[in-house]
Amino acid sequence: MNVLYLKPEFAISVSYDSYHIREKKDNLKQKTSRNHIFQWFQVEKDYNMSKTPYVDAVSTSLPSVLSDLLTSFDTISLDKLETLIRFCTGATCPPRIAGHAGAWTSGQTRVQSQLSVLNQKTGEKRNRPDDEVGEAGTSTANGSGAPSKKQKLGLTDSADDSQALYTLHSVSVTAPIRKKVDISIRKEAIHLSNPSSGSLEARISVESITRAFLVSTLARNKNKEQWMVVLLSADSFDKKSESSDHTQVMFSIDKDVPAGKEGFKTTSGLKSQVTHSKGDPTLPLLQEFLACLPSHIKVITADKGSQVFSSSSGQPYVDAYRGAKEGTLVFTEHGILWGNARPCEFFALEDLSKHSESPVEGGVKTLSATGRTFTVFVRRRASGEDIEEEGEDEDDDDQAEEEIEIAMIDGKEKEKVDSWIRKYKHLFGKQKGSPVVDKKGKGKALEEPVPDFGQDELDSDGDEDDEDFAPDESDGGEPSDDSDSDEAESAEEGGLDNDDDDDDDDDENDDEIGDNEAENLNADKLDPAHHPLLRPGAMPKMSKAALEAVVNMVEGDLENNEDEEEEEDELALE
């Protein structure tokens, strides 16, 4: 409820919690009532004389039980209390300490953040008076015993978080919420706070984060270059599981600080807030921000002009669609990131299916029907624990795979993607530190160790063998020396012949293997300049004469079929 007091050239609005003076240059209708004039002078006198308007506003709003709290303060104490209330409520810096306005503003931001943590319970659902709360937050009303709903995004676990290590101010995030917030990394968690009020919007435990990405991108419908930051708690996203198990943080910042009145602001630890002017690079700021993450989180960077993958635009990704969702497919040395969309997913090389020459199998395959666009099929184990062990059949792994289709990719990027596949296909499905198995059998066989027999064993074996080869009576005595020599010569000649045959077979097999390897290398190194059908968007052409020949053949078949049907009808009538 407001009361309006009028005076020539002024209009003063008085409310219960504050005073506001508003000058009117228009000619206002004068009120000659003596009561109105007296009340206006009294309000103006009180407003000018009061040096502690915030304390007065609090004192007039206190309930009767607390009305005597301010009576024990003297004038000096009231001035200090006035400054404290100004600081806590977000008011402007007093004129007597105007030289510390920067520290005043940054301190207010920290205080608001801490106060929002203390007031976190205000967002929880209020229990009914007749409901009893049991252990672990369960409600026993009506005998249900169901657990009460917790506040989203882990806000209830933030009471013991430490001081912020690094903060990015006024950043527009797309996940886990779509809002402009202050992002701060702390020792225990990542806080997303409201820039003006400092209230906590979301909290993500740093222990749940497993991967971090820093990717060079282009803003949609713009030519402005940006840095995209993605933090993942899991490589895959399962809608059936709880959202807290798959928390993601994603935001983008221009590579150079854009023009603006306030600029881009950051805060490092307990230092004062720093404002970065137009044109300053943001990459060092983001690197310092990500460096505050725990050591178990590996930051994967994909910059423009990367040696790992570079599209026709020079960026480390290609635009694509997954179903109806538009996003980007980022190719890195550790795997493939589906980003710039909600939710993001990462396909690690070790989680992909092992490479296969079959067009319907393998970790990553490309397929193009028209040549203008193509599709990437990514096959991944359904769970990261499906590792092939000794004695397991490959059919078991195939049953535990899932296939993801990412389509509508520009055809001119197909050769770039195929080159990445050829470069990293030997790492598909290989766990880190595991030996590479030669499935084609081209490796050299290991020589088996020769057992070391003792001399006594050799002598005993020789005696037993000699007894088995006793001369027959039909031979008429012992064999002659000539026969022994002939047999020895024939055995040596036969052995030499067999060895030569084996060597020839080995040479032929080696030649065949070498030819096959050469053919595979030549197939991989085909130059699109000499093979028009390998160029992006190429389609095989057919001459007009060939088309007419095919049409004539089809028409001839149709005429023959009609004649046969007429003959069958005539025979049926007879």
TrEMBL record:
* Record GO terms (molecular function): histone binding; nucleosome binding
Supply the source organism's classification.
Eukaryota, Fungi, Dikarya, Basidiomycota, Agaricomycotina
Q: Which residues cross the membrane?
A: none
- Pfam families noted in UniProt: Rttp106-like_middle
Q: Which PANTHER family match?
A: FACT COMPLEX SUBUNIT SSRP1, HISTONE CHAPERONE RTT106
This protein is called what? Negative regulator of dna transposition
Bias (Basic and acidic residues): 122-131, 437-447
Q: What is the stated purpose of this protein?
A: Component of the FACT complex, a general chromatin factor that acts to reorganize nucleosomes. The FACT complex is involved in multiple processes that require DNA as a template such as mRNA elongation, DNA replication and DNA repair. During transcription elongation the FACT complex acts as a histone chaperone that both destabilizes and restores nucleosomal structure.
| Family named by the database record | Belongs to the RTT106 family.
Query: What organism is the protein native to?
Result: Pyrrhoderma noxium
Tell me which domain of life the UniProt entry assigns to the organism this sequence originates from: Eukaryota
Cite the Gene3D superfamilies for this sequence. Pleckstrin-homology domain (PH domain)/Phosphotyrosine-binding domain (PTB)
